[in-house]
Amino acid sequence: MKHLFLLLFLTTALFHGTPSLCDTVKDDDAEELKQAVVPIKKAAEQGDITAQYKLGVLYSRGIGMEKDNALACHWYRKAAEQGNMKAQYMLGRMYYEGEGVPQDFVKARRWWGKAAAQKNANKDNHLILCVDSACYFKVYLNGMAEYDIGELYSKGLGVRQDDDTARQWWEQSAAKGFVEAQLHLGYLYHQGKGGVGQDYGMARRWWEKAAATGNPRALTCLGTLYEHGEGVKKDLAVAGELYDTACKRGFKAACAALERVNGQ
Asked: Is CB count within 10 Å lower at the N or C end of the chain?
């Protein structure tokens, strides 16, 4: 029998959404942020590619200025057309969401493909805007373009639906260390979906990679394998340890699983 709680928390994680920004903007930082944006805007207008990308992020988030998706796309495009991987990814995201431009999955695929094709993206794949000693707005993009292309093929958005091609893209994403891809591949093998047969060994392989980062969902997934003896010897003690670690990291599903195991 499929484990309902596993399905519930995994399926909520299959699409990662727009890249998140670390930290929050405090009211007393607002004026400082406005001042910090000034040199970025000036550099962007003078043709600095990195500044153009950063300005796109700031417009899309309304950081230090009024939120304006059309202007965000304008600056993303300028940087993307000059080969900036981060801008290429974000422009694809804007086309996918239909923010600042008409929704267009074909163009999203095109820009994500350009971002994915860049082999040296690992060295610099985040943005940090610093004000005095505080740094904000870190966006990790490594492996996300591949993951999102996989989603397009999985759903048949702008491309012909193809589970095998989707999985290949997710594997490329996972190989770059994108945890959501590793989790998703584990889910596919655990459930026998997406054109693969059920294979608990492969599920364990991908979840162990994700768990190595400390991800609480991955730890909980591994816990279910040990709790139910799927591809491993049933071991409630190991399951409990995994659930406990994930629970202490704030993952409520793991806390519920820990209570269940302790009650056996």
From this structure: N
